[in-house]
Design goal:
Elements: E1 2-10, E2 14-18, E3 21-31, E4 39-45, H1 48-52, E5 59-71, E6 74-86, E7 95-98, E8 106-107, E9 113-114
Antiparallel strand pairs: 1-3, 1-5, 2-3, 3-4, 5-6, 6-7, 8-9
Length: about 120
Amino acid sequence: MEITGKIIQVQEEQSGNGRNGVWRKKDYILETGGQYPKKVCLTVWGEKIDQFNMQPGDQVNAGIEIESREFNGRWYTDVKVWKVTKDGHGSGPTSAVGSPPDVTTFHDEGGDDILPF
């Protein structure tokens, strides 16, 4: 899935320690175009923060993955970015950065599908 718009705000980077080591994430607020613009919070994880280097005012086309999960009876939705194409604003070709997410299916010994996280 893809979404296009302008980065209007960049949040502070967050980091911590998890069971797989140190993690980093950064949220960006994107505003879509059109007659009824919408604001969407995009999350970038790990080294892609430095790769994408999105700044306020950047016009971007982002490859996204939308995922919801339940915690204590409430549902939370993340919009994770895996690819960014920046608009060159007429100064040259657009640049694509990133790669598609890993879609490997994991199986336990019983043959049931399980998630890798």
